[in-house]
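PROTEIN DESIGN WORKSHEET
SECTION A - STRUCTURE
LENGTH: 271
TOKENS:
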């Protein structure tokens, strides 16, 4: 996505990043039917339940995952978590710096904790599947998840994400070695896909092992019915925004195909 000019990184979601100033929309709702002069039959009274969207299964969740063929050629299956995850994402917010709105410190901590625990959207209600990729060109990592949620809880999480660029515009966090990290959060707009969507860009600037570093992360979530895709992409050399966009577009289409009974392209079997 394309970031706002004030964003530190314009790369996937630094060098051409992912999101632009955020504007997210959500929609959807069920419409009721009117009365008729003919009494409803027992079958008719059961029709709402019969037409309800089936719950996402584990097999469908796995089938809806993107593959490295949906991304650029530099992406390969992940070889394990990057060292910056523990070093930076386990940081603790310096709540003393929140003079006027101390409650915002808790939201910023929830953001960091959710990124580290990989549960920013909350605990899935049903099936879920996760995959990860390494970007050999930019030393970045992408994590991609498909999961079923309670729709109201999911919409509440997306609405909460939208508030974070205001609540957590800039703050200080203390990493696990006592170093200070300056954290900035800006809004970003994922592609206009799915039923509702939200995006963020996060940067953490400080030192890691005595060297000046800046971690850049693209964060995107898209709701499709009662299900959602959630992606994070980035690293210490920035984030490839084109890859973030492609992951969201391809992943949303795969999930929509799965839920409509279609079969997405098969995930290649390792040779």
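SECTION B - SEQUENCE
RESIDUE ASSIGNMENT:
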């Amino acid at each position: 996505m394309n970031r706002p000019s004030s964003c530190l990184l314009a790369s996937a979601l630094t060098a051409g990043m992912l999101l632009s100033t955020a504007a997210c929309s959500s929609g959807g709702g069920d419409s009721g039917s009117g009365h008729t002069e003919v009494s409803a039959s027992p079958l008719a009274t059961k029709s709402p339940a019969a037409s309800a969207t089936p719950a996402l299964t584990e097999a469908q969740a796995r089938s809806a995952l993107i593959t490295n063929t949906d991304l650029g050629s530099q992406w390969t299956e992940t070889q394990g978590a990057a060292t910056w995850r523990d070093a930076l994402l386990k940081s603790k917010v310096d709540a003393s710096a929140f003079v006027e709105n101390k409650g915002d410190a808790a939201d910023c901590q929830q953001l960091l904790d959710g990124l580290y625990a990989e549960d920013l959207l909350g605990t899935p209600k049903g099936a879920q599947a996760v995959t990860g990729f390494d970007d050999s060109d930019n030393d970045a990592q992408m994590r991609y998840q498909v999961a079923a949620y309670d729709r109201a809880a999911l919409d509440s999480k997306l609405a909460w994400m939208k508030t974070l660029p205001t609540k957590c515009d800039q703050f200080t966090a203390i990493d696990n070695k006592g170093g200070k990290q300056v954290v900035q959060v800006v809004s970003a707009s994922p592609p206009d896909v799915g039923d509702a969507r939200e995006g963020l860009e996060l940067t953490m600037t400080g030192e890691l092992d005595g060297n000046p570093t800046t971690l850049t992360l693209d964060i995107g979530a898209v709701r499709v019915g009662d299900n959602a895709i959630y992606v994070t992409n980035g690293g210490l050399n920035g984030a490839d925004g084109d890859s973030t966009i492609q992951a969201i577009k391809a992943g949303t289409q795969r999930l929509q195909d799965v839920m409509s009974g279609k079969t997405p392209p098969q995930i290649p079997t390792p040779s």
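SECTION C - NOTES
The first helix runs from residue 42 to 45.
The chain is about 25% helix and 25% strand.
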